[in-house]
Automatic annotation (TrEMBL):
<keyword id="KW-0342">GTP-binding</keyword>
<keyword id="KW-0378">Hydrolase</keyword>
<feature type="binding site">
    <location>
        <position position="22"/>
    </location>
    <ligand>
        <name>(6S)-5-formyl-5,6,7,8-tetrahydrofolate</name>
    </ligand>
</feature>
<keyword id="KW-0547">Nucleotide-binding</keyword>
<dbReference type="GO" id="GO:0042802">
    <property type="term" value="F:identical protein binding"/>
</dbReference>
<feature type="binding site">
    <location>
        <begin position="275"/>
        <end position="278"/>
    </location>
    <ligand>
        <name>GTP</name>
    </ligand>
</feature>
<feature type="binding site">
    <location>
        <position position="125"/>
    </location>
    <ligand>
        <name>(6S)-5-formyl-5,6,7,8-tetrahydrofolate</name>
    </ligand>
</feature>
<feature type="binding site">
    <location>
        <position position="255"/>
    </location>
    <ligand>
        <name>K(+)</name>
    </ligand>
</feature>
<dbReference type="InterPro" id="IPR027266">
    <property type="entry name" value="TrmE/GcvT-like"/>
</dbReference>
<feature type="binding site">
    <location>
        <begin position="231"/>
        <end position="236"/>
    </location>
    <ligand>
        <name>GTP</name>
    </ligand>
</feature>
<dbReference type="GO" id="GO:0003924">
    <property type="term" value="F:GTPase activity"/>
</dbReference>
<feature type="binding site">
    <location>
        <position position="256"/>
    </location>
    <ligand>
        <name>Mg(2+)</name>
    </ligand>
</feature>
<keyword id="KW-0460">Magnesium</keyword>
<dbReference type="InterPro" id="IPR027368">
    <property type="entry name" value="MnmE_dom2"/>
</dbReference>
<dbReference type="GO" id="GO:0002098">
    <property type="term" value="P:tRNA wobble uridine modification"/>
</dbReference>
<feature type="binding site">
    <location>
        <position position="86"/>
    </location>
    <ligand>
        <name>(6S)-5-formyl-5,6,7,8-tetrahydrofolate</name>
    </ligand>
</feature>
<keyword id="KW-0479">Metal-binding</keyword>
Amino acid sequence: MHNDTIAAIATPPGVGGVGIIRVSGSDAFEVVLPLLKRPGSSTALPSSHKLTYGQIIDPQSSEVLDEVLVAFMHAPHTYTREHVVEIQGHGGPLVLQRILRAVLARGARLANPGEFTMRAFLNGRLDLAQAEAVMDLIESETEAGQRLAMQQLRGRLSDQVQQARHATLSVIARIEASIDFPEDDIPTPQAEELNPLIDEALRQVELLLAGSDQGRLYRQGLRTAIIGRPNVGKSSLLNAFLRTERAIVTAIAGTTRDTVEEAVNLRGIPLHLIDTAGITPTEDPVEAIGVQRSRAAAESADVMLLVFDSSEALTEQDRLVSTEAQAMGFGVPSSTLSSDEQVATHQRPVLLVLNKSDQEQRIDRAELEQLWPHATFISTSTFSDAGLQQLEDALADVVLAGRMLHSESVLVTSTRHQEALRRTMENLRAAGRSLEQRVPLDFVSIDLRTAYDALGEVTGETASDDLLDKIFSEFCIGK
C-alpha cells in the first residue's frame, strides 16, 4: 500500500548526537502532533518547514521520552511529495526506538526498506535512475563516485536517455501513423527519412555505453588481488598501499594464512586490495584452507599484482603461481592486437611486482619476460618505499586506460542500466538493418518499440513491479 502513513528511523544505527525519525503520509501530522508537547498550551499545527521545539510524550504513560526539534512539512514540497514530519531527537538507539514505538502506536506503519524513496519515485519527484542515485550517493567511497552520483541525481543521465527515447519515439510515430491510418493518405516513410532519427538515438546510447565500464569502476571499485608464493612481500605491499601496519609481517614464510581485504582510493576509484596467503603445495590443513581462499580471491579479482622476490632466483613455486594466474585468465594481450581483439581475449590485467629491490638482485628477468611477454614490470622495495609510486601510477594506467573523470562527465555506473542500454543498441541496429533490407515497416516497428521500452527501464517508465521491488529492497530502512 502506498496511501498509508509510514515511519522509520532515518539515521544510521549506533550512538550519535542527533537521531531522526521520519514520518510520511496523508495522516503524518495527525500522527505526530498529539505526541508533541510545546512550551505553553499551543496545539495548533506549526508553520511548514520550520523547526519547532518541544517534548515527545508517551501517549500511554505521559512520560517525557525526549526533548526534540520537529519539522512539519506540507506536501508537495517534501522528499516524498506527501506530508512529512521529521523528529530530531538525541541519537541514542533506545530513545529513538521508544519515539518510533509511540509514532507507530498512533497508527503509522513501519516503513519497508527504501519505501520513502519509492514514494518519491511513484509520486513523480524522482525518476528511477535518480532514485537509484540516492543510494549511490549514500554509499560513495570516493569524491569521484560522489560526483557521479550527484550528476545522476540531478537528472543528467535521465536527460540523455530521454533524448534517445524521444528520437526513437519519433520513428515509431511516423511508422505507426502510416500503418494505422491508411485512409488519411499519410505517406509511407522512407528509409532516408527514418535512418537519421535512428542514428541519433543510436548515437546517444553508444555515447552512454562508451563510458559505462569506467562508470562501474567508480561506483563498485576494483578488486585487486596480491598474489605470489610465500614470503615475497605481499603483506608488506598491502601495508605500503595503506600506509599503516594492517597485515602481520615476519620473516617466517606462511605468516598470512587467510585473505586480508582493505580499501584505498586510487585516483577516485575505490581499490579493494586483497592480501592472500602464499600459493604453495602444503600438507598443513590450516595452510591449505588459506591457499584455497587465495585462489578464490584471485579468480574473483579484476586485476592481479603478481609479486616476486627479486633478491632470489625464480623458484618452481613462482612458475606454478604464474601458470595458475594465466589459467585463471590473467594476462597481457599483445600490443599488435587491435582493441577489439584485446577485448575478445577476455584477459584480466596483471602487473608483475619485483619486490625487495633494495637487496642484491638475483631474479632471472629474461625468464620472467618469457613467462609474461609484454607485461609491465615494477621494481619495488617496501623497506625504502622505492617504486611504490610507480606501481600506483601503473595500476592507475591499467585501470583508467588514460581516461580521466571530468566534473561534468555523465557515466553509466549501474550494471542494470548498462544491460538495458545494450539491449536498446541491439534493437536499434536491428531496425536499421531491416530498413536497409526493405523489411515491412510493422516488423521494423517491433524492434523500435523494444528499444523504446528498454530505455524506459532506465528511468522507470516501463519498469515492472518486480524490478521496482528488487531495486528498492536494497535500500536501507528510513531512506
